[in-house]
Amino acid sequence: MMNRRSFVVSAAAMAGVALTQPILGQVASRKPLTRKERVDRALAGRDVDRPPFTHWHHFGPQTPEVHAKATLDYHWKYKTDIVKVMSDYPYPKPGGNWYELKVLNNPFPDQIRALELINTGLNGDAYILETAFNPWQVAVKLSSKEEVLRLQQENPQRLLDALDVLTQSHINHAKRAFAVGASGILFSIANAKREELSPADYARFSAPFDKRFFDATAGARLTFLHLHWENEYVDQFVGFQAPVVNWSVQTSGVQVSTVRSKFSQTIATGIDEVRYKDLSPAQIREQWQSASSAAGSKFILTPGCSVPNDSTDEELSRLPQVLGA
Question: For the purposes of burial, counting CB atoms within 10 Å of the CB of 49, is it exposed (0-12), middle (13-18) or buried (19 or more)?
Fold first, then answer.
């Protein structure tokens, strides 16, 4: 019986769709790599038939069943090598003040259910990348940026205690995500920049908790250190135990060559997510090749963050078409 992958590959061959030539060297077999093989080889810095890629956007809060179906449909339609699962369910608010938190064993039950359904639907076709946000971002979502900064000034220990609870709750969630099939967590850190926190304040109020999350998930194959950062913060992340570093070259000003000079991990970046809808195939190819050249063999092609939610089918299809996916 022909499975879904065999059918897709056979149909592509009959339609005369050619795979791109290896850009990092000739792989041992001329057969197309499976999605997982392609990702594994990129993580190890080995030759690939083409760079593994993924892109993503928000579907919005939905039932776990609708969320899972939208995620799977997106993966099959745009032929992504990694299934990046969005996380649009809010962290539960406490009954009293926002900072009066207790550790939760399962803070996102609907997300866990969606991950179970996605894992079943994939049937081993690709790695699953769950999404989580760092404690500082979650605190801001539970209250407001102004409230968190006020607490930082008036009662810093109370803020640190709240961030500690949020950290442990997210570690608990990550373990549940791994148990139902996730191979990694895209852990988003959006406050390593001056408009959010000074370098000294990031080092005190965020870095210890962010690093603790990565220490607790260090055995995961595919966890992404997803950064919204600026150059003066780069050195703070060098010791983080994450297999992949992901950020936006275009919006941060942090160059691939800078990251490669300091980080040995796989680099995932290249595509301008802000201008994605307007990028021509030639511009996509130029961004891919520029990032790949600077990153070296340990490279995954991604946008720096989610592409616009209103991207059309034609726009979302350009990247896999340029790659010959």
Answer: buried
